[in-house]
Amino acid sequence: MDLLRSLPLGLYLEQPQTWLHKLDARVKIAWLMSFLTSYTFANNQWRILLVALLIILTLVARIPQRVWKQQMVWLLTLALFVFVIISISPDGLGVRYQPRLPAEPQILIQPGNTNTTDIVPVPTQENKNYSYILFDQGPVKVTRRSIDLAIRVSTIIFTVIYSSNLYLLTTAPEEITTAIESLMQPLARFKVPVTEITLTLTLSLRFIPLVLEEVQNLIRSVTTRAINWKKLGWKRAAQVWMIVAHRLLENLLLRAEQMANAMMVRGFTSPSEHQVKWHELRLRARDWLAIAILTLFWGVRLVLGHMA
Fold first, then answer.
1. Where would one find coiled-coil regions in this protein (predicted)?
2. Residues 52-61: pLDDT tens digits?
3. CA–CA separation, 26 and 276 (whole Å)
């Protein structure tokens, strides 16, 4: 099992360089925030459209299938599983639907008046196609509310996880921190430690692959020893995994100490005095085009995406 390939969280795809890689990191942050915030108070059609847009964006960017195929399949499977579970679960309302109109045609006659011209026909139930319960067979009952909730939860799982993963996949950690530092510069007037925050974020993004690598190495070391877990029992198995977790913590602390020593050797004293320009931010023609499309994106959201 290769965690660095099956779970590429925080990993950056260096090659090949797609047009998504070449976009300004600040523009991509704006797009990411748009995907995450436009979901709020949106109708189900817009939520499904966001999922479709992410899939289309991945295909149009020509990112290699080996990078995204497994993750997308797992996420879609998870979203479909959540959709099915929630749609057949009780919706919490406990509504017993009863027709508002009578089942048979009737005639209403105003009291004290026998004039036939005042006879008003009542519409029949056949003219009503609305039904709160969409499917009811045995223990399985699907209602409009359960379907609505299932679409909300399943689409937000896919949108939040995959949009963030796509952003990290096409944006270098240095570009991310430089973009965040540039966007947070107005907060420096209020004595917010912007540089320290971005430095911490840079080290965190750099540390995620190291954590995955350590976990992968420990899992491989356990599997190569061919331990018979059935003979061990749950107590001894728990002891083994506690030893593995303790070893993982030691390795991570050692990696952190090595990183700190490397920074000290290079003369790093403080973020304010030892700043490194990781990436030069400059808006180009393709970035302005992405901003224009983003404006159109929000225009469509405001017009068509409102919750009814």
1. none
2. 999 999 999 8
3. 18
In the prediction, which pLDDT does 279 show? 64
- pLDDT attached to residue 28: 92
299 CB contacts (<8 Å, ≥6 apart)? none
β-strands 133-137, 107-108 pairing: unpaired
Q: Which residues, given as ranges, of the chain have pLDDT below 50? A: 1, 3, 116-120, 125-127
- What string of DSSP letters covers the chain? --HHHH--TT----SS--HHHHS-HHHHHHHHHHHHHTTTTB-HHHHHHHHHHHHHHHHHTT--HHHHHHHHHHHHHHHHHHHHHHHTS--SS------SS-SS--EE--TT---GGG-EEPPPGGG----SEEEEETTEEEEHHHHHHHHHHHHHHHHHHHHHHHHHHHS-HHHHHHHHHHHTGGGGGGT--HHHHHHHHHHHHHHHHHHHHHHHHHHHHHHTTT--HHHHHHHHHHHHHHHHHHHHHHHHHHHHHHHHHHHHHTT---TTTS----------HHHHHHHHHHHHHHHHHHHH-B--
